[in-house]
Amino acid sequence: MTDNTFTTLGEAIASITDAIEAGGAVTDARTEYDLDAIADELITEHADETPEGATIASSLHFAIDADEDTFWATVEAHELTGPITAELTTVDTPT
Protein backbone atom coordinates (compact mmCIF):
# COMPACT_ATOMS: atom_id res chain seq x y z
CA MET A 1 0.00 0.00 0.00
CA THR A 2 2.26 2.75 -1.22
CA ASP A 3 -0.21 5.43 -2.28
CA ASN A 4 -3.13 5.71 0.08
CA THR A 5 -5.01 8.75 -1.30
CA PHE A 6 -7.67 8.38 -4.00
CA THR A 7 -10.01 10.62 -5.97
CA THR A 8 -12.99 8.25 -5.72
CA LEU A 9 -14.22 5.66 -3.27
CA GLY A 10 -14.15 3.10 -6.07
CA GLU A 11 -10.43 3.71 -6.62
CA ALA A 12 -9.78 3.18 -2.91
CA ILE A 13 -11.73 -0.09 -2.89
CA ALA A 14 -9.92 -1.23 -6.06
CA SER A 15 -6.62 -0.57 -4.28
CA ILE A 16 -7.71 -2.82 -1.40
CA THR A 17 -8.77 -5.51 -3.88
CA ASP A 18 -5.46 -5.25 -5.73
CA ALA A 19 -3.49 -5.58 -2.49
CA ILE A 20 -5.42 -8.70 -1.46
CA GLU A 21 -4.97 -10.31 -4.88
CA ALA A 22 -1.32 -9.24 -5.31
CA GLY A 23 0.14 -12.31 -3.61
CA GLY A 24 -1.57 -14.67 -6.02
CA ALA A 25 -3.20 -16.82 -3.34
CA VAL A 26 -6.50 -14.98 -3.84
CA THR A 27 -7.73 -14.48 -7.40
CA ASP A 28 -11.14 -12.93 -6.65
CA ALA A 29 -11.16 -10.90 -3.44
CA ARG A 30 -14.91 -10.14 -3.77
CA THR A 31 -15.80 -13.80 -3.37
CA GLU A 32 -13.46 -14.41 -0.45
CA TYR A 33 -13.76 -11.17 1.57
CA ASP A 34 -16.46 -8.69 2.59
CA LEU A 35 -14.90 -5.74 0.77
CA ASP A 36 -17.67 -3.35 1.83
CA ALA A 37 -16.94 -4.04 5.51
CA ILE A 38 -13.20 -3.71 4.93
CA ALA A 39 -13.74 -0.40 3.13
CA ASP A 40 -16.00 0.86 5.93
CA GLU A 41 -13.22 0.25 8.45
CA LEU A 42 -10.22 1.42 6.45
CA ILE A 43 -11.32 4.19 4.09
CA THR A 44 -11.87 7.70 5.35
CA GLU A 45 -13.29 10.68 3.49
CA HIS A 46 -11.43 13.98 3.56
CA ALA A 47 -12.37 17.42 2.24
CA ASP A 48 -11.60 21.06 2.86
CA GLU A 49 -14.36 23.33 4.10
CA THR A 50 -15.30 26.93 3.54
CA PRO A 51 -15.23 29.29 6.54
CA GLU A 52 -19.00 28.67 6.76
CA GLY A 53 -18.44 24.92 7.11
CA ALA A 54 -19.54 23.84 3.62
CA THR A 55 -17.56 21.08 1.93
CA ILE A 56 -15.46 22.18 -1.02
CA ALA A 57 -16.35 19.46 -3.53
CA SER A 58 -13.16 19.81 -5.55
CA SER A 59 -11.11 18.95 -2.46
CA LEU A 60 -12.95 15.69 -1.68
CA HIS A 61 -10.71 12.63 -1.59
CA PHE A 62 -10.52 9.26 0.10
CA ALA A 63 -7.68 7.68 2.03
CA ILE A 64 -6.78 4.33 3.48
CA ASP A 65 -5.71 5.32 6.97
CA ALA A 66 -4.08 2.14 8.26
CA ASP A 67 -0.60 0.78 8.72
CA GLU A 68 0.23 -2.57 7.13
CA ASP A 69 -0.56 -4.63 10.26
CA THR A 70 -3.94 -2.95 10.72
CA PHE A 71 -4.73 -3.34 7.03
CA TRP A 72 -4.10 -7.09 7.01
CA ALA A 73 -5.82 -7.66 10.37
CA THR A 74 -8.92 -5.92 9.00
CA VAL A 75 -8.80 -7.98 5.81
CA GLU A 76 -8.45 -11.19 7.82
CA ALA A 77 -11.35 -10.23 10.09
CA HIS A 78 -13.64 -9.95 7.07
CA GLU A 79 -12.79 -13.20 5.34
CA LEU A 80 -15.93 -14.96 4.17
CA THR A 81 -16.10 -18.53 5.38
CA GLY A 82 -18.28 -19.74 2.52
CA PRO A 83 -21.95 -19.77 1.71
CA ILE A 84 -24.36 -20.18 4.59
CA THR A 85 -26.35 -23.37 4.18
CA ALA A 86 -28.99 -24.92 6.36
CA GLU A 87 -30.80 -28.20 6.29
CA LEU A 88 -34.44 -28.38 7.28
CA THR A 89 -34.93 -31.39 9.52
CA THR A 90 -38.41 -30.90 10.99
CA VAL A 91 -41.34 -28.61 10.62
CA ASP A 92 -43.40 -27.67 13.65
CA THR A 93 -47.00 -27.21 12.62
CA PRO A 94 -49.41 -25.57 15.06
CA THR A 95 -52.33 -27.83 15.99
Describe what this molecule looks like in 3D.
The protein has 95 residues and is α+β, with helices and mostly antiparallel strands. The chain contains four helices and three strands, in the order E-H-H-H-E-E-H. It has a three-stranded antiparallel beta sheet. The longest helix is centred in the N-terminal third of the chain and has 13 residues, at 9-21.
What is the rounded Rg? Answer: 19 Å
Globular, elongated, flat, extended or rod-shaped: what is the shape? flat
Number of helices: 4
For the biggest sheet, the summary is: 3 strands, antiparallel
Report mean pLDDT, rounded to a whole number.
Answer: 87
Distance between the termini: 61 Å
Number of beta strands: 3
Helix content: 25-40%
Task: Name the features.
single chain, 95 residues, alpha+beta, 3-stranded antiparallel sheet, 4 helices, 37% helix, 11% strand
